[in-house]
Amino acid sequence: MSQIIDRRAQGKNKSADNRQRFLRRFKKQIRKAVSEAVSGRDMGDLERGEEISIPARDLEEPTFRHGPGGVRRYIHPGNKEFSTGDRIPRPEGGGQGGGSQASNQGEGMDDFVFELTREEFLNFFFDDLALPDMVKKQLVASSETSKARAGFSKDGNPANLHLVRSFRSAIGRRLAMRARPRRELAEAEEKLAALEARGEGDSPEAHDLRRDIEALKRRIQAVPFIDTFDLRYTSHVDKPEPISRAVMFCLMDVSGSMDEVRKDIAKRFFMLLHLFLTRNYDHIDVVFIRHHTIAKEVDEDDFFHSRETGGTVVSSALSLLADIIDERYPVSGWNIYVAQASDGDNFVDDTPGCGELLEKRILPLVQYYAYVEINAISPQSLWREYRRISRTADNFALRRINGVEEIFPVFRDLFKRKMA
Fold first, then answer.
1. Which of 69, 78, 133, 150 would bridge with 237, disulfide CB 3.0–4.6 Å?
2. CB 40, CB 68: distance < 8 Å
3. 281 and 246 Cβ atoms separated by less than 8 Å
């Protein structure tokens, strides 16, 4: 009898299959616990998992219990005082236990606590998040393909052998190879029958016909039922798949009014956004833009660590954003998203221009625009202008973050998956 040995690498006394089954079964409770846990977490805590507690009542299983009535016998170990038929006196005070410290609160059970790994925690955290309205698809040069049927071939993997096609080919081959011998056989048999009818069955001609008939029968029988020539295999080819192409523009204000606290909150928000994008999407471009009085497209390292600062002209970033879309990301083939973080401070004369750029050049091109105002004492001029635009633009959202503890809730609110 064959034996199967599971040599998958697993921790001691752990079962990966059972763990995944548990996570799937209690997905709703775990997701709720994760949502409650992230409210007090810091961005640095993404490097670790989380200890999750599930109420015991959510883990209850159906059980069979004895109903009232009937005769039952119990065996109590250690009994030295009572015999069959004895009556057991009721405990003093009407309690259910004999100890003076017995609780009168009824039965209970501690919550079930277990540890989520970093990967598991992030899976649950990002599970219900998505970029909104990703609908534009286009065939692009990528490694994303799918197997498509391409008829039948004479060579292939035995697992792809198509029996119906193979037998159909064999039948056709046998009919073609046996057709002529069968006609010659029928003619020879008719001639032999005619000779025998005339009483010439022992003539040399009759002997020759009998020899030809045997040869024709052997020739017909020699045709194989199925041959390697008949085999047909299902053929599959790699077919490029239309994929959703998306680009996310990250705009961060690094002007002098953005002190270290505000910059830290903005960086944490964009770090979370970058982690979300790279983890959930294989084909997405991320464009980083820093701005003060001048806007620059930078790489990831400069975006998060450069110390350049200055005044505030938000329109410079919006103009650069619009130019990059026109040059590199045609609207017909790209889903375009923008996330902007700022303290809202801007030159008063520049704010109307920002609103005009958004309404006329940017919002008609993008799927979604998210603006986050960070730790502003009161709504700034940019917030008021953006709020006016948000009343009529369905693809524009704005939120305020007043502390590190609000990064997670605001992020989830902005990128919550829409229900179909």
1. 150
2. no
3. yes
Higher pLDDT, 363 or 412: 363
Sequence-ordered strand ranges (E) for 2-59: 50-54
**Of 115, 97, 7, residue with least CA distance to 51:** 115
Can you tell me the mean pLDDT for 370-398? 86
Three-state DSSP class for residue 149: strand
DSSP assigned state of 128: T
φ, ψ of residue 162 in degrees (nearest 5): -100, 105
Quick: pLDDT tens for 114-152.
677 767 776 766 666 666 665 544 434 445 566 777 788
Please, what is the angle between helix 27-38 and helix 118-126, to 10°? Answer: 90
Q: Which residues of 12-49 are buried (b: 16+ CB within 10 A; e: fewer)?
A: eeeeeeeeeeeeeebeebbbbbbeebbeebebeebeee
What phi, psi does 419 have (nearest 5°)? -80, 135
- For 66, residues 6+ apart whose C-beta sits below 8 A from its C-beta are 72
Residue 209, class by beta-carbon neighbours within 10 Å (0-12 exposed, 13-18 middle, 19+ buried)? Answer: buried
pLDDT for 58 equals 57
Domain ranges of the chain: 21-57+111-127, 158-235, 243-414
What's the distance, CA 236 to chain centroid? 25
Cα(324)–Cα(313) distance, integer angstroms: 18
What's the CATH code, domain 243-414?
3.40.50.410
